[in-house]
Amino acid sequence: xxxxxxxxxxxxxxxxxxxxxxxxxxxxxxxxxxxxxxxxxxxxxxxxxxxxxxxxxxxxxxxxxxxxxxxxxxxxxxxxxxxxxxxxxxxxxxxxxxxxxxxxxxxxxxxxxxxxxxxxxxxxxxxx
Length: 128
Description:
Blueprint: E1 19-25, H1 33-56, E2 60-66, E3 70-72, E4 78-80, E5 88-93, E6 100-103, H2 108-119
Parallel strand pairs: 1-2
Antiparallel strand pairs: 1-5, 3-4, 5-6
């Protein structure tokens, strides 16, 4: 994936994050022609989603989780890509809330609307 190399465990330089938006993909399970196409689409939308998070959710840290990495979420659960179904998507996490799985590929508008509802904020990228 050509997304910026942001380690899942790296803390935001901008200050204390009030939540996570975790992009995850299992490149091992996506090693098919259809899987490679899904990864390309994922990379395209990731760039747009990265800008949405930066602009509309400044206290949310965007992380990328790959196969072999483990991330503790705010609800006390752990995220392990190898055990996730589907093999590509996003997870939203915030203190005091149960995590929300956005399964499969997400467009920028899909992500913006889901994140706006989850983090209880508005997003200029959500047409609703």
